[in-house]
Design brief:
- The chain has 18 helices and 20 strands.
- By secondary structure, the protein is of the alpha+beta class.
- The strands form five sheets. Strands 1, 9, 10, 11, 12, 13, 14, 15, 16, 17 and 18 form an eleven-stranded mixed sheet that branches. It has a three-stranded antiparallel sheet with strand order 4-8-7.
- Strand 7 and strand 8 form a beta hairpin.
- Helix 4 packs antiparallel against helix 5, helix 9 runs antiparallel to helix 12 and helix 17 runs antiparallel to helix 18.
Length: 571
């Protein structure tokens, strides 16, 4: 080729390159569907050890990465479906024995963890035994029980072991190490039985009807014995050995988490390849991220005003759903001054729930007058009838207890400023004002960040403080057993130390009653006792709120609070 022809060819190539570049820029192309979903939240993790996880975000991360024995239907109505099991155990299919004391778990074949380790009946026993037994906690440098271990109290031998272990840790001890060892050996032998590779049985120490729902909770999720030894806690999120739709690939506390599709998951693959979760310090930061398009979904916890503004923005969809999450006050009823029931009753009379709901939450929440949420079987508005707002009655009780304008009841109301959103400080200010309207109470407000806060109330350092509760299982038992049952350690874990042996018996009874009329009456009696003794003051019932881009679909607001990342997709 001569020089002239070579120049011509070069010019033609350059022109073609330019034309291709122009076409790439200006010719319309079909939009590509994003493969990464970005979710924003103000929530924080505590521990990702399934046996010990007991705050919302930690549990929700496990729900998206761990396969549970049962799961909740994607209809969002709270009904149960099999996940690792082949069927939901019932009396009709033989999964629950006629006496209600044996649950037979039939496992699907072929399910594995992300490293290929099989999930079999031995895995089930290892995991449940691990959830019951005390383990070494590196943070405290001592052995301790898992936080939600009291939920397994009804398994045969579990109560005896927990009682013995708790006695050993008392000062002075009421049980010996030999008694603890014997109790543990009894539990191991009697609690969970391996029948064969795909069949396990849970033997109950007493009939406990909510057990079926507990099979869907993450504390019962099978864990990989290669990652989770029997004798120590493993709080590191990156130790999660996934068996669910996603596996955790990156976790930077307070910054971001990244989930990638788990290719070994036995079920329907996650809708998008990757989910990035971004953590925001404040609800204002979360709202700004949504407004600027930095995130695709904002879930927990937008300020009510921000939710309202975003809900009328044409770029987004906003949904609000019912929620069984409750908010309440806790009294340390073991120690003065609130060991005097009259003071607890006086503060109950002085609370104005309507003002809190209207002023702080712009009527997006509901006043709550029982620990059992509205809409759930057995709920009764016992505090509405027992404690209508009445400052005169509050003053009469305070006066009878020895207080006056010259000698006011001085209390510190504690709250945590970020865990439940920035509205928490507003709630505390309103309660302070409402109580001080009596003229006989002086209220100081104080707060601690959540990590310190939960240690403080567990150690008995607070006398009255704000807390919240999302359900482990959708049954009224979950709103009376943990809160009011002293023998299992439930009231101690809440920092209330409320003790009522008769009530313990009623709580155990309602969980055994199959007749709805009888159970409703027992739950009514329990709520009457709650109103009489006031170890807690129910305040409001929350609503679920989520905002997302219009290109996003598959968002499910579930009664169980199970927020599924794996169903969300782009259109």
């Amino acid at each position: 080729m001569n020089r002239r022809n070579a120049i011509i060819v070069s010019l033609i190539v350059i022109v073609l390159i330019v034309l291709v570049a122009v076409a790439y820029v200006y010719i319309p192309r079909a939009p590509t569907t994003p493969t990464v979903l970005v979710v924003g939240t103000t929530e924080r993790e505590e521990t990702m050890d399934p046996s010990d996880s007991y705050n919302y975000f930690s549990v929700n991360m496990l729900q998206n990465t761990m396969a549970t024995l049962l799961t909740y239907s994607q209809s969002g109505d709270g009904t149960l479906e099999p996940m690792l099991l082949t069927e939901v155990p019932t009396a009709q299919n033989g999964g629950i024995s006629s006496d209600g004391l044996t649950y037979t778990l039939k496992l699907r074949s072929g399910a594995t963890f992300e490293d290929g380790t099989a999930i079999d009946a031995d895995t089930i026993k290892h995991s449940i035994d691990r959830a019951v037994g005390a383990k070494f906690d590196a943070a405290s440098q001592q052995d301790r029980l898992a936080v939600p271990s009291f939920l397994l109290d009804a398994i045969d031998g579990a109560n005896g072991y927990v009682t013995a272990y708790s006695g050993l840790t008392k000062d002075p001890p009421t049980h010996t190490q030999a008694e603890v060892d014997a109790a543990w050996a009894n539990y191991v032998a009697s609690g969970v039985e391996v029948v064969d590779a795909t069949t396990a049985k849970i033997h109950m120490g007493r009939v406990w009807s909510p057990m079926q729902y507990l099979l869907a909770f993450t504390s019962m999720a099978p864990v990989n014995p290669n990652n989770y030894p029997a004798d120590e806690f493993v709080p590191d999120p990156l130790e999660i050995s996934a068996s669910g739709p996603y596996q955790l690939s990156v976790f930077v506390s307070g910054e971001r988490a990244e989930l990638v599709r788990n290719t070994r998951f036995f079920g329907t693959p996650a809708a998008v390849e990757k989910v990035v979760i971004r953590f925001y310090e404040t609800d204002a930061g979360l709202a700004l991220a949504m407004a600027t398009g930095e995130i695709d979904v904002a879930y927990r916890n937008l300020h009510p005003q921000a939710f309202q503004l975003l809900s009328v923005d044409a770029r987004f969809k906003a949904e609000q759903g019912d929620s069984p999450v409750i908010r309440y006050l806790v009294f340390n009823s073991r120690d003065p001054p609130f060991s005097d029931v009259r003071l607890r009753q006086a503060l109950a009379y002085a609370v104005d729930r309507g003002q809190i709901v209207k002023t702080v939450f712009l009527d997006t929440t509901q006043p709550l007058y029982s620990l059992i949420p509205r809409g759930m079987f057995g709920h009764e508005d016992v505090f509405q009838s027992a404690y209508p707002r009445d400052l005169a009655r509050a003053r009469a009780l305070l006066t009878a207890a020895g207080y006056s304008e010259a000698n006011k009841l001085a209390i510190t109301l504690w709250y945590t400023p970020a865990r439940y959103g920035t509205t928490e400080a507003d709630v505390a200010v309103l309660l302070q004002s409402q109580w001080q309207e009596t003229g006989l109470i002086s209220v100081t407000l104080n707060s601690q960040e959540w990590g310190t806060y939960r240690q403080s109330f567990a150690a008995g350092q607070f006398r009255v403080f704000l807390l919240g509760w999302f359900p482990d299982y959708l049954d009224p038992d979950n709103y009376v057993f943990p809160f009011l049952h002293y023998a299992s350690g439930g009231t101690t874990s809440f920092g209330s130390w409320y003790q009522n042996a008769t009530l313990d018996q009623l709580i155990e009874l309602q969980a055994q009653q199959s007749d709805p009329t009888q159970r409703a009456q027992t739950l009514s009696d329990i709520q009457d006792a709650l109103a009489a003794d006031v170890p807690y003051i129910p305040l409001w019932q929350t609503a679920q709120q989520v905002v997302y881009k219009k290109s996003v679909t598959g968002v499910i607001l579930d009664d169980s609070q199970f927020f599924r990342y794996f169903t969300i997709r782009f259109t």
